[in-house]
Amino acid sequence: MTEPHDAPAFPPMVERFRGYLPVVVDVETGGFDWNRHALLEIAAVPIELDADGRYVPGEVAHAHIAPAPGTEIDPKSLEVTGIKIGHPLRGELPEREGLDQVFAPVRAAVKKHGCQRAILVGHNAHFDLNFLNAAVGRVQHKRNPFHPFSVFDTVTMAGLAYGQTVLARAAMAAGLGWDPQEAHSAVYDTLQTAKLFCAIANAWPLQRSVPADA
C-alpha cells in the first residue's frame, strides 16, 4: 500500500493556532496615543510554513500613510522614526488606501491557509493593534482581517525564551543580529519581529491534544 504523495507530513497552519493565521505587524506613528495621534506607516508579514513544516516569514505588505484628518503629530516621535511627512519619496497613501494595500495580501494569506482570520503578532502587540483598530474605526473599514483583541506578543515570548524584552536585544539573543540604522522602519522591525517569532515558535513543536478516551 502506497502513501499519498500530496499529504503533508506535518499539520497545516489551520491546525496550529485554532484556525488563526499569525501575521506580524509593526506600525510607525505620530505619538503614543492611538485616539489622537496619526498612523504613519504599517507593515505586515504573514507567517508561512516551509517544506519541513517550520515557521518562516512570508512576503511583506507595506504602506506609508498620510496623517488622517483630525489626527495629531508629536514632533518628538518624528525625531525617533526619521519620518518626513509629505516627502515625495514616501509615496503616502490616504489612510483607507493604505489599509487596503496591507489588508488585501493578509486576507489572501488567510484564505490560502484555510484560516478563519489573522491574529496580530507584534512586539508590544497591543500598541500596534490599538493603532490599527483606531484607523479601521476612522475609515469604517468593513474587511479588517485581524482579530479585534487577541494577539501574540513577542515581548512575552522573548522574555520567556531569552530573558530579553527589548526587540534589539531579543533579536541578538536569537542570533538574528540588529542594525540600528534600519530600526524604526516598519518593514525592518516587522521582519525582525517575524524572524524572532519563528525562532521561538520553531523551538516549541506543536503538541497535538490526546482525546480523553484514547
Number of helices: 6
Strand portion, in percent?
Answer: 15-25%
Mean pLDDT reading:
93
Q: First CA to last CA: what distance?
A: 26 Å
Radius of gyration: 18 Å
Instruction: Give the H and E element order.
Output: EEEEHHEHEHHH
**Secondary-structure content class:** alpha/beta
| Biggest sheet statistics | 6 strands, mixed
Write the layout of secondary structure elements.
Elements: E1 20-29, E2 39-49, E3 55-57, E4 61-64, H1 75-81, H2 95-112, E5 117-122, H3 125-139, E6 146-153, H4 154-162, H5 167-173, H6 186-202
Parallel strand pairs: 1-5, 5-6
Antiparallel strand pairs: 1-2, 2-3, 2-4
Helix pairs in contact: 4-6
In short:
The chain is of the alpha/beta class and 214 residues long. The protein has helices spanning 75-81, 95-112, 125-139, 154-162, 167-173, 186-202; strands at 20-29, 39-49, 55-57, 61-64, 117-122, 146-153.
Describe this structure in words.
With 214 residues, the chain is of the alpha/beta class. Helix content is 34%, strand content 20%. It is built from 6 helices and 6 strands. Strands 1, 2, 3, 4, 5 and 6 form a 6-stranded mixed beta sheet that branches. Strand 5, helix 3 (125-139) and strand 6 form a beta-alpha-beta unit. Helix 4 packs across helix 6. It is globular, with a radius of gyration of 18 Å.
